[in-house]
Amino acid sequence: MSSAAGAGEPSSSSRPGKEREEGADDSNRKVEDEGDLGLELYGAEAGWVEARTSCPHLLAMPAASADDLARVPAPDSQCSRCHHPSENWLCLICKDVLCSRFINKHMLYHYQESDHCIALSFSDLSVWCFACDSYLDAQSILELRPVYEVAHLLKFGERPPFRSLEVLDLCNGQNGGSSSSS
Ligand SMILES: [Zn+2]
Ligand SMILES: [Zn+2]
Ligand SMILES: [Zn+2]
Q: What GO molecular function annotation could you give as one example from this UniProt entry (predicted)?
């Protein structure tokens, strides 16, 4: 009495013929021929983004002390030479305020005369090094942070939102004392 059950169907798990998954990769290539308008936009944007995170001329800056930072003038200070009223540059070496290359070029002349090459724009708080011919990243360069922060405070009435700062961790220490149960 043995029921010979279980004689199931023969399992046909082996499928012949693999399917090709995605063989058509030449459909993506068409998009690149859009003309040179896209290229121009990309170029301008790349020039702006490339802010240096280091600069050998930072050594010329005075050490950031409370005394030195107190010399940072109001962002609406006028050019010390031609008295142009707005969008001037602050020389970070001597804290002189001078107008841009689009006005009377006094900051540029100042660099050529005195070799003071690092300046902060009071229009957007970007930092430019004339010697490097490049923007400097005020958020990632430690030497620039104090003066950038003071300028931001003077211009906007609040401190800049820095990315990740040890200084901020120190400030947050006042919250750390609370002992949570669970
Ligand atoms: Zn000027
Ligand atoms: Zn100067
Ligand atoms: Zn430089």
A: zinc ion binding
